[in-house]
Amino acid sequence: MNGLHKSILGLALTGLFSGAVMAETAASTKQAVTPEVKQVIQAQLLKIIPNAPQANIESSVIPGMFEVAVGPLVIYMSADGKYAFNGSLIDLETRENLTDMAKAKARNEAMAKVPESSMILYPAKGQQKHVVTVFSDIDCPYCHKLHKEIPAMNEAGITVRYMAYPRSGVNTPSYFKAVSAWCSDNPAKAMDDAMAGKMLPKKECENPVSMHMEQAQYFGVNGTPNLILDNGDMIPGYVPAKELIQLLNR
Known about the structure:
alpha+beta; Glutaredoxin; five-stranded mixed beta sheet; four-stranded antiparallel beta sheet; 39% helix
């Protein structure tokens, strides 16, 4: 998926949409996504990205251009597959970033396919209001800082779910720490200890750490902590619990 991510992000964007054009396109009727259009666009994707997965193709507000989501990545392509651009599409009347909205939707759909049973959970206290998924590294200082604030988030009705992303890679000390935490009889307690700097007993089992690392690449994660909110927004880096709670409740 890393190659897929780089290939899509490498597509060139050439063009500038003026306010007049955007106003015209917003009022236009969206073009239907026919089986023929899907076939042409998917075939072109396969030329650009060998073994590209099936894309989710929808109409866009730009006549003749279609929104193409491959996992959590979004680009735009013409019906004949000859033209593509990768960039933000803005509705100048509402000031909404339509591309960010499409990416958030795609992230939510992709995250829904990741088994929650593979994650380490810190459930909300009382009624669950929100769910935040965190790609975390046991050896990341800002991950330690965020971890200390999980009780405050839980008290505010936020469930925190951990996915493993040891940035140093497979078969490194950080990787084996994650494996030991996930293989523990009590993974949440083991993660608490690891984040507090305690040495975990080395354990091995069938575990999701490598799968989580692949998912991190799929989602375009390049640092930790990396938060994916339940509305599909992605926040790279540490955010104080107070600010995060305000953001989620907004």
